[in-house]
Structures are given as C-alpha cells and as structure tokens.
Fold each of these.
Amino acid sequence: MFGIFGFVLNWLTSGPLDRILSSIDKHGSDITEREKIKSEAVSQYVAAQVQIANSRQWWFPILFLVPAGLWFGAVCLYSIFWCAKCAYPRAWSIAALPPPLDQWEGWIVSSLFIGKAGEAIIGKFRK
C-alpha cells in the first residue's frame, strides 16, 4: 500500500519539488555570486582611492616649492652677479614679494622642511 502511495506522491511532487529546490539552489548561488561581485567592486574602488591619495603626495608640495624656488634662485643669482656692487652691476632689481606673501612663503617652506625632518625622526623611532 505504501509503495503505490509513495510512488504516486513522488510522481505528483517530483516535478514542482525539483523545480522549487533547483530554484532555491540557483537563487542561493546567484546571491553568493552577486555578493562576490560587490566585494570585488568595493575592493577595487578602495584600491583606486588609495592610489589617488598616494599619488597626490608627490606633486602637491611642488606647487609651492617651484615658484618659491624660482624666486629664491633669482634673488640669489641677482645678489651674486647683478647687484649694484657685484661682478656685473645692473640698474634693475628683483622685486620682493608683497607683505603677506613673503611671510606665507617663509611658513610654507619651513613647514615642508620641518615636516620632512619630523617624518625622518618618527621613522627612526618606529623601527
């Protein structure tokens, strides 16, 4: 009796039950795959942000150092060669920076040197 009943029950539910179970398995693997793709995308985004943050560090001080260095170099060359009582005297001179800028430039240049020295000192203590 149970053999025929089991056969009929198996025959009636095998199609829908198999489809339901296979659908659940597929949905589970889709969710897993979706989460894997999300985590991969997030890790690539974070890596790109780290690269952007690290790439700014080398050129940002240059924006301050190049103009300051050109001005300082021009002042040094003028002071050595072309001042009134130097090797090649000229009537022209190199203008000084306006009052707020000269103080700011001093702060910027000194902060860069102090920052590099502090970085070296901290690096020695971390080892």
Amino acid sequence: MFSGTRKFVLIALFTALLITLVNLAWWFYYAETRDLLDDQLDRRLSAIALSASTAFPSDQVDQLAADSLEAYLRAIETLEQVRAADSLSEAFILDENYRYLATTALEPDSTYFLTELNGPCVDSLFFGEASKAALTPTYETGGLYLKSVFVPLRGDEGFVVAVLGVEANVGYFDSLSELRQNLYLATGLSLLGGILLGGLFLLLQRHINRTEQQLFLGQTHAHLGRMVAVVAHELRNPLMIIRASAERLQSKTEMPEARYVIEEVDRLDGIVTGYLDFARSGGTLLTGDTRESVDLAEMVTKVKKHLFDKHLNEQIEWLGGSSLPAIYVETYPRSLRQVLLNLLFNGVESCREAAKPTRVGIDIVDSRQSVQITVIDQGHGLTRKELRKVFAPFYSTKSYGSGLGLYLSRRIIHEMGGELGVSSEPNVETLVKITLPRQTGT
C-alpha cells in the first residue's frame, strides 16, 4: 500500500506525463499539417512551372536571351497568363547572371532582388545539379511568406540558357501561424492547469493526511488510555508496599536511603495517578499537581543532585552553570520536575549509546514575559527524519522504552501554557528548549 507522499508523487508524475503526451500530440499534429501543406504546395508549384516551361520553345528562349523585343513581348504575355490562371505572386525568367529576361512584376529591377536567398537554387539548374525543378524553402519578404520553384529553359543546342521561376504566396501560412499561437496558448493553459490541479491535489492530500493522522492519534490515545489504566492499577499496590516498608525501615534505622525511597515512591505514585486520571477522563496530565511559585534554580539543583545520585558509578559532566540566580515562575513543580528528569535521563542514555562521555546539563534564560529552560546533551543526536517523528506517541530511537517520554513531556508543557521544541545536530548536540510564561495557565 502506497504512503500519502508516494501516492502524490505517482499521481503528479502521471499528470505531468499525460500533459506532456497531449501537448506532444498537438505539436506533432501541427508539424504533420505544416509538412503536408508544404509538400502539396511544392507539388503544385512544380507542376505549374514544368507545364509553363513547355510554352517556351528553344528558339524563343535563344531569342529572349538575345534581348529580342518580339520574344520578350510573347514571353510577358505567356507569363501573365500563367500568373493569372494559377493566382501566382510573380512569374519570371532569369539568365545565368540573375538578370530579368521577362517578369510579370509591375516595376521590376534589372536584377533578381532575391539573388542572395534563392541564388543557389537558380545556380543548381545552370550547373546541372538539378535537372527538372529546384524548390526554395518558405521565405518572408515585404510582410508576405512566399515560396518559389525554378525550372530550366533550354536553347537550340540543348544547354540551359535561362530559368523560369514561379512565386506563390503561402496562403496557409497565416492559418498555420494562428494554429501555432493557439497551440502555444493551449500548452501554457495545460501547464497552468496541471500546476493548479497539482496544487489542489496537494492541499487535498495534506488534508487527508492530517485527517488520517488525527484518526490514528485518536486511536492511539484510546489504546494508551486503556494501557495506562491497566498498568497504573497493577503498579499502585506494589508501590504502597514499598512505601510502607521504607517507612518502617526509616523509623528503625533513620537511614537517608529510606527517605529517598519514600520520596521516589511518592513521585512515582503521583505520576501514576496523573496518568490514570488522564486515561479515565482524557483530560489534563497536571491532575494531582498544584500551581505555585517555584525557584527554577533550586529545582535545577535538586534535579542535578537526583541525576548524580542515580548514576553514582558513572562519570557525568554537567554542562550548565554551577550556580544559577533565583528565578521564580508560577508553574506545576512536580510535573516540571518530571519533564526535566525525563529529558536528562534521555540525554544520559543517548551519550551511553553513542559510546561518548556523558555530558548533559540545563541552562536557563530569563526574560520579562517568559523563561526558557534548555536541556542539553552531547549524545548521538537526531537526524532530520527522526526530528519529524520525535513527538509521535510510541516512537523511539532506542531499542527499548515506550516511546511516550517526549510525547507526554510536550503535552505536560503545553498544558502549562508553554512550548517544547527539539533541535539537534547528529553526533554533536541535542537541545530541548522549554519556554514557560511567567504566569502559567491553569
């Protein structure tokens, strides 16, 4: 089954191919029509010129070349009849020097004015390169598109003494030009239509993808709710037993470790309670936490101590400042502490998986309207592809874990009225930036 992106690419390619084939078919039709009309005109003009050449016997050709007035008048009469009968632009006779021996032009020059353009065709008849007829390509002169055909006129000795030329206006050229302009317009409109259609389909595809994603997330949340409800129920009883045992141990020995166990059990029980409430109501993850004024510097110190205590046998380099000024913000302390610890633990695991020294830390930037908390780690980092999926539920770059950590962390921060974003450079550094307003929403 094709993904949305692949389906869009395939449909876009098919549409582009279809538009290309249709336009190629149009232009092929135009070229075939032009060539067919050109060939028909060549045949017609050749037939006219060859037929007209039979009206000039060899003796008359010799007399015409010798500037005989009588031969000239007979030639003019014959040429005019040919021109009028076949609707030609001009009919004329040239000698080997391109001099007019006779022409139907009203004000002829003494020399053929298109010598440079059509001279090679005339020469081919005098030099024997063409024996019957020489055709010129279509040419433009005086705003008209013309075509000429030349045939040889032989004298009494059998040599080519002159050439007969007939010139016709390419009447279909205007129609072809109009057809070509229409094809340009049709091609442009089809390309524009393809682009608009592609853009419309892209918008529809994105809408479908968003709808599918929302449906998937809705199903995911439903499964997550059921899973959390079961897990929370199964965890609570053991947690209460652990807490009761730690309380008895603390009352008898006053060991600091017992107090630490009690604190962590309470924290874990609070998390479980929040998840359970979320699963039941589909509501907030801040259930069980209260908003209060919190010194972020003090919280970072406690989080740092907890991190180091949890990893006593591991060398950790702290990247944040050794001491931070007191920064107060109204927020939900238990939930924020949970997010920071989760991010730091992720950073430690990232460094461990990359086989690099464990370097993690927290930096805080204070401004009037908000506070930015940046959790730093120098582990394996994330690729662009991984960054696009990093907040999806159940997505994890690790071979273990639920894939819910960042998803739930961002949900928690959003419910506080803040923002959580991730930037990363593979094998260099990952920054998770939390922006909290001074007055956190309820």
